[in-house]
């Protein structure tokens, strides 16, 4: 009877997470399917339209083009991101002094707020003054007009995405540490070289987790590209970066044609599903046979590779901060000199004068300060409960979490807008905090689930024998043991809510409640070519997450 009562309490801990999935994922998904058959502007009652929205979308040349552009971004970027994350994890897996520092550098770009990150790359890609083209000219190469030339606009977006692979790196590193040392030692005794051990043993063991990363990145790239396109290309040049998310946004929130936007969501679900099925078919036939044997990297070579990776990852951030100290009103040098002869901090003061940065920063701090603790509580509750329920139930809940994880957030924009409108959350901070309250963070839940599962059952049994209930076991026993995971979730969720650009854009119409990413957008609109000013604003908006990360990175990396 006591076991049943304990499991009932576990299900109560799961309630916020499951409720959030129903209210903020499943219900909006159903609405998106139904709205495709109605003419609806969000103001008047919906009117039945039959298949008219499908005809309007299909005959719209931009709709077809948006699908093609979305595929052109997702297909090359996904293997590059996952492969890069795996290579970084292999390089920083074992051995060497200062390993924690290199791991921190590898993860650092992923905590930069998306709007700040995009504007920093807008400066880096500048064809005249951008440091990337200056570097290429110094090397004797002919630099492209990245965001001006339709041929190079998509490669520029793909290149941007390769610098934010911290989550994939962390997951790959955890997967490598989960490879049994005994298996690798046995292969080494049998004479297998490092490459043979990797291809024949390590890669097949971590392949399921890599496949999850690939599936997640497909949805993530399609989603994350919207912020970059919205801020720096607007779908151009000549519609070269006009993707499906932009089509959905324009139809739903510019033209108030939610029915046609829902057809775009159908296409988005179909596109993601087709890619997932294709990858699943490839994975079923995946065979590996690599006869080549190579010796292990010697320590100096490995150290040089680590230093090279660190330089490449930090270089955009260094360029960003250095540009902020140029004297206002003076032309930027077309050279690789980082700091001007007389560095000036006047740009930081100008940012405060042009926009009410303090109010926007306070709003971001308020949202982040409320959302992060709620995320920790609801995600750890769900992961803790999942880890102790029967194995058959665990597998179903993990499958449900993975399914929700693969749903592109873009597919929920317009229907979630209607849900928030019905709940009275529009134009309130509640619309930004609701996902944390309801626990709709499957990636964080799975992180906690994995951490809680690694705790021996004897510890849980001992706590119950001592009279500890579910909440006491969670708070006093399980959560302290999983502090590295909690630190990781704190950093990731803080960066997510601090840098949330889409939430305020879609659900807040009151200027007084706007957040820091909105200030960056306003500055970009007012001072499009004032790069020192923009980089000063980007540096200020980035300082918070970076400082938090530096405070927590030791806890985050010391046990993996």
Structure description:
This protein has 560 residues and is mainly alpha-helical. It is 72% helix and 1% strand. The chain has 25 helices and two strands. It has a two-stranded antiparallel ribbon with strand order 1-2. A hairpin with a 7-residue loop joins strand 1 (38-39) and strand 2 (47-48). Helix 1 crosses helix 12 (258-284), helix 3 packs parallel to helix 7 and helix 15 (357-388) packs parallel to helix 18. The chain is globular and about 70 Å long.
SSE order and pairing:
Blueprint: H1 2-35, E1 38-39, E2 47-48, H2 52-58, H3 61-91, H4 99-107, H5 114-124, H6 131-138, H7 150-161, H8 166-177, H9 181-189, H10 194-233, H11 244-254, H12 258-284, H13 299-323, H14 346-354, H15 357-388, H16 391-405, H17 413-423, H18 430-437, H19 442-453, H20 457-465, H21 470-481, H22 483-498, H23 502-507, H24 516-526, H25 531-557
Antiparallel strand pairs: 1-2
Helix pairs in contact: 1-12, 1-15, 1-17, 2-12, 3-7, 3-8, 3-10, 3-11, 5-10, 5-13, 5-24, 5-25, 8-10, 9-10, 10-12, 11-12, 13-25, 14-25, 15-18, 15-19, 15-22, 15-24, 16-19, 20-21, 22-25, 24-25
Brief overview:
This protein is an all-alpha fold. Helices cover 72% and strands 1% of the residues.
Please give a handful of descriptors for the protein shown.
mainly alpha; two-stranded antiparallel sheet; 560 residues
Global structural class: mainly alpha
Q: How much helix, percentage-wise, in residues?
A: over 70%
Distance between the termini: 39 Å
| Main sheet specs | 2 strands, antiparallel
Radius of gyration: 24 Å
Q: Overall 3D geometry?
A: globular
Tally of alpha and pi helices: 25
Tally of DSSP β-strands:
2
Order of helices and strands: HEEHHHHHHHHHHHHHHHHHHHHHHHH
Beta-strand content bin: under 5%
Q: Which residues sit in consecutive blocks of at least 5 with pLDDT less than 50?
A: 286-297
Q: Mean pLDDT, nearest integer?
A: 80
Strands of the largest sheet, in order across it? 1-2
